[in-house]
Prior knowledge:
Elements: E1 3-7, E2 13-17, E3 20-21, H1 30-49, H2 51-67, H3 70-89, H4 108-119, H5 123-137, H6 148-161, H7 164-168, H8 171-183, H9 191-194, H10 196-199, H11 206-242, H12 249-297, H13 300-322, H14 332-358, H15 365-397, H16 402-409, H17 411-419, H18 425-454, H19 467-487, H20 490-501, H21 504-540, H22 556-559
Helix pairs in contact: 1-2, 1-11, 1-19, 2-20, 3-14, 3-21, 4-12, 4-14, 4-15, 4-18, 5-6, 5-15, 6-13, 6-15, 8-14, 8-21, 11-12, 11-14, 11-17, 11-18, 11-19, 11-20, 12-15, 12-18, 12-19, 13-15, 14-18, 14-20, 16-17, 18-19
Amino acid sequence: MSNTKSKTDDGTVGIIKEGHDVKLFEKIEKKVFIPAVVILAVIIIPLYLAPEISNQIISSVFEFCTGRLGFLYLLACLVSFGFLIWLTVSKHGNVKLGSAEDKPQYSNLSWIAMLFTAGVGTSIVILGFLEPIYYVSGPPFDLEPFGKQAYEYAHMYGQFHWGLSAWAFYNPAIIATAYMMFVRKKPGMRLSIACEPVLKKHAEGLLGNVIDMLVIFGIVGSISTSLGIGAPVLSVIIREVFGIPQNYDFVVRIIVLIIWVCIFGTSVYLGLDKGIQKLSNINVVMAFIFMAIVLFVGPTTDIFKMEVNSLGLYASDFVKMSTYTDPFGSGKFTQEWTVFYWGWWLAFMPMMGMFVGRISRGRTIRNVVWGQLIWGSLGCCVSFMIFGGYSLFLQETGRVDLASILQSEGQSAAIVAILQTLPMPKLMMIFLCLVCFVYLATTIDSCAYVLAGTTMKRLKGDEEPARWNRIFWAILFCLLSIGLMLIGGLEAVKTISVLTGLPLIAVLILLIISVKKMLTGEDKRKKAENAENEPQEKADSPEIEKISPGVACKTEEDSL
């Protein structure tokens, strides 16, 4: 048997025996990796073998989670906001995520670009156009469909679902991960380690492994939802541009997913700094060029008028929307939209927590919390302002009946109908495809990066997960997405997010308590250090002559 040497990703040399690298799985946390892969296989295989039965089961699960337990998602959002306010108004906001001499690892622009493109994907473009049409035809608060108020709320409600509330979910995971990694210098990019102040020794045991597996399900579910929404729409646009017949639609969808994996693979090969960072910067530029085109060729003044009105509605109805359960009505709007989105953001929470935490070394807690909250929300709201404003303009003026197209032909046909109203429609379709490819490639890259880190044993703050591990998870995303496309429909992909987000509510609470324990423990440690240093400082200071009682003090007269 011949042995040869091979370099691994971390630069060490492994021995290949009979074509197998014995170090391939050496750094993998098998207690997390193997059970997670097995359970995901049990979920994915039935989607391929019995799509109809799988669809029925998924629909029943969606009804139970949103109808019976929907209020838990709303409470989780309110708790996240309460934590955010406590964190930023307290003295803990000035705590640096790193050593005293650490400076931010990335420039502000690169940091904003990476966190924004990691947190959103192709869905921000597709749902940015279409979500307001869903709302105007089925509005909240028992408003009349297609009435004046329905149009007003339709333009604003997407900004609520993608705005401050969405980004508030991520803060506990971001701060807990960054603090453990860069302040306490704990090796390992896993949420179970971030929960260590609460779990103590159990963080390395069964309970910690369960949390990490929930993280894996959440991330796989969240990104598969994005792929499940994006791939069908892009395949139709590509068929429209190149004149490919309808019967090749599924083949085109597979090609779309393969292209995503290829873009992602290139980014993985280049690494975090040269790959994700540069891809994110390119993504932001392309996205804002596309938005600017839609804004200036569309009804620019009308879109700005809509947005000013939406800002007022957002501010006045924020609490109402955050607590709207419709207990004496059907609750359909809340279940299908607000609960779905809160479940989706919860599913994204581990990925965003670990990824943004990883890139936030050297920043203060207040800077990280408000930076990701404001810039993330602003990017999403601008997208909905422009895309949603344009589609509502087309619907309200009667230029295109998007509501009817959505109902009869689906999302893909509605997006094509919108793009055909723009100048040089085929060119705009190609440009939209490029924007969407790069958008979701950065999200896939970030998700795979975090999953690879979660399944590694002891990954230090400046180490990157193995490339093969990241590529493995990207392929798994695509397999699940293909399975979701087989059973079809937006409801199927919605259910995956709602289902994976439910157990992560408990993880969110654990993270909030952990952060509080970390920061209050830091206060106690600093006070103890100050108390120890104080006597030493006194000992080192020059002696001051003390006058004993009974010793007379000379005055000027005595000296004379």
